[in-house]
Amino acid sequence: MNKLILLVLSILWTSENLAQQIIGLPPIVNYTRQQYPGGGQTWDLDMDRNGILYFANNEGLMTFNGHSWKLLPVPNHTRLRSVKADKDGRIYVGAQDDFGYYLADADGVLRYTSLKPAVRDRKDQFADIWDIVLYNGGVFFRGTTKIFYYDHHNLHIYPGTMQWQMLCRANNRLYAQDANKGLMQFKDNSWQPVCKEVADRHLLIREIIGRDAKGDATKDQDDDTLLVCTLKDGIFKLHRGRLFPFTSNATPIFIQNQIYCARPWGDNQLLIGTSYGGCYIIHRETGAVIQQFTVNEGLQHNSVLKIFTDPGKNIWLTLDNGIDMVRYNTAIKQILPDNKRYLTTYTASVFNKQLYIGTSDGVFSTPLDGQRDLSFLPSHFRQISNTAGQVWSIAQVEQHLLMGHHEGAFEIRGATAIPLSRRTGCWLFQPLSSYMLAGCYTGLQLMHKEGGGLSAARPVKGLFESLRFLTVEDDSIIWASHPYRGVFRMYLDRDTMLHYTLYSQKNGLPADYNNFVFRIRGRMIVATQAGAYEYDAATERFVPSRWLSPILKDASLQYLSEDAAGNIWFISDKMPGVIDFHKPVPEHAYSIVHFPELKGQIVNGFEFLYPYNDENIFVGAEKGMFHINYKHYRQAREQPLVLISQVSAHGKADSLLYGGYYPSGKHSFKAMPNAFSGFHFEYASPVYSQGNTIEYSYKLTGFDQQWSEWSVKTEKDYTNLPYGHYTFSVKAKDNLGNVSRPAVYSFRILPAWYQTPLARSGYILLGLAILLWGYISQKRKFVRQQRRYQQKQEQLILRHKFEKEQREKELISLQNEKLTTEVRFKNKELATATMYLLHRGKVLSNIKEELLVSIKKIDPLPDNIFKKVLRLFEEAENNEEDWEQFSRHFDEVHNNFLFTLKRKYPDLSTTDLKLCAYLRINLTTKEIAQSLGISVRGVETSRYRLRKKLELPADTSLYDFLMAVTGSPEKPV
Length: 973
Description:
The protein is 22% helix and 37% strand. The chain is an alpha+beta fold. The protein has a 5-stranded antiparallel sheet with strand order 1-30-58-57-56, with no helix packed on it. Strands 39, 40, 41, 42 and 43 form a 5-stranded antiparallel sheet that branches. The longest helix has 101 residues, at 757-857. The chain is elongated and about 210 Å long. The termini are far apart.
């Protein structure tokens, strides 16, 4: 029964709460698991002195600098449950079975120091560290069964009687919940009971909130009263040790959705994070819900594990799956008049204390309640009846609120719309002194003013074109623009006939299309794709506006509007901006402010901007209506801040020079070898409330001559840097022109070995050596030239000698040829003579034989008749004169062959010498026998005897011996 009552109260409260939701929804930035490197659950977060955020994630410590994420797993690779940043630069973390701190070293890299080794006793072991609180110069860590206190020197342990369930700080006091003893306070180095009722009622406290957001007591308030937020039982007030229920309309929903975390917000508000219902902003005193953030408003998940607020008044929510940031302090908010259906909006107007917004499905209105900033109005939107469908415009004309609709022209009266014309769709209205004009799909329609009302609309003949933009000049000339034909200049003839002139590109306009007419400062201005143009009546042509073009130059314009203060609002390339003549800059008597937060959000082709006053500017968008509080936007905002998040050097292997975290002391100065000539710099601005409005400019002193152009890029690379000292500087600028102080990083590139002073000295010595070598070389060259000249002369002489020798050789050759010829001739003669002698000897021998035969036939034989003849034959056969003549002639031909042989072998007889001579000229055995007058056998015998005399071995040829024995002939004396 109690649960049923609680459910009914929850439903009733939810309906009432939704009705009281304020209309302005701040932007919610979703960081999904695909964007950051950790796991789904993030349990805690904190920010350091430089604006870097630290997240306790299931996969380790995540850091975020506004642009890039990094993940640092703890050494035991367990889940991180808590994180707390100290002013000295230490980042304390609590994990599973470990706790300690990260501290940046001189290179800006976070290094982990575990405090677990200080827990020496095994009985003091622990599991998860759920809470970390900085208190009185020390750090408290809450485990499930023990609380550890680290005073930067020693670790003190405080065991619980059963279980420690909570640890927090409020009103500059430290509180913890013991499961048996209830709420405890740390006092005089011990835990003392504060409220036993907490344990008796089995309450589980999630947060205790004091009077001040920083946890410090406020003197003019009762700091004894604390707000105790419990998991399942709502909120209580703790006063002097007693609990009192803090009952409000939100109590049922907090009991149902369970409070998981809480945090003070502003002067008199609280942020409540729940397990199932998202995040709520409630009034501290009454408990009334001011605003809620759930999945319907843009959160990724309704389970909020931790709430954190940064100096820019952004609300950070760590969720069961993802991380979200609510830019609550933003001057730009989204209005959803259709209860989260995200209808496209085209127009808005404030009329009779009502805010009207025209959408793609009707007009919605909500009453004003005196709020200066209308985005803080309670959401009581209701749809005006008879307006369903496409709404193009809402115009306040005197006491009439007119609506241009797809189905015609209407007048809104109270909660309904009265049709004025249904002939065709109506774009907009333009009043004249005595009647009202309506620009429609098929030309103009006219409505007469009759008393306090308007007559039915009737068409004006003469032009049947779509006229979506109208303006009037001197209450008689009507200007209208066509989507793609140009600009019409028209006037009415007796309120029934329209006369017009069409102006196009040939009349000075940049193009026939994208021209939009507006009335600014009493002038007709045409917004074009090449800037603002005006009509020159003298030349009947359009020319660039003499006062607006120098400001906006050739920017593509789609919408122009003037506010009550004389500022010119415009839309250019899907991004709104304003020319503020009340905020001059040194260069101009005005300033131009763009709103990059809305770039791409505006409806293309149906741009709308309504500057009601400086706190309420309405911009039509594809999803809902955007509201700009320009007064808040232009006030001095959080100044831009820039951090260098990483510096790395590139060579054969990359080297991290700076990790992006500021060390407690000075960061190291790097002197890099010359091999590292490429450097990569990353930088970011941890000003989370300004989103994509930040631009950067950088300069590398020692290389760049001036600062770079402003750009949204967050990294810069330099390659092939020469050696020397360098300082990289980067600064950030927001869209209001506020510039941060530059962040700097200095380093040095060492010269290569060939660029050092020692090398330069070597170069000087080498240069001197080269000069000396050049001198010596020239001298040697001169000597070589002389030597070459001498060699050439010698070569000429040698060539002359060679040619002379060649000629002599040729002469000798000729002589040798002559001698050879003579030798051949003499050999021929010698052979002829020998043959003659042989023939003669043969003839004589034949005659002698025939004579002897004849003598034998004579009988009786005469005694002495033939002896004288026979003696003559013998003398002829043994004629020594013939031999001497032969030998002399033979020695002349054969280099003193017989003389040399006789000298070497004196035992040789004449017959032996003859045999040698005949063998030398290569006579046959038979020829030798005939020449010697002996038989062939006698020749063989003579050859044998000759070999013995010459002492020749049996394997030596007699002919070869005779040829060799006279190789060195001797001359006769």
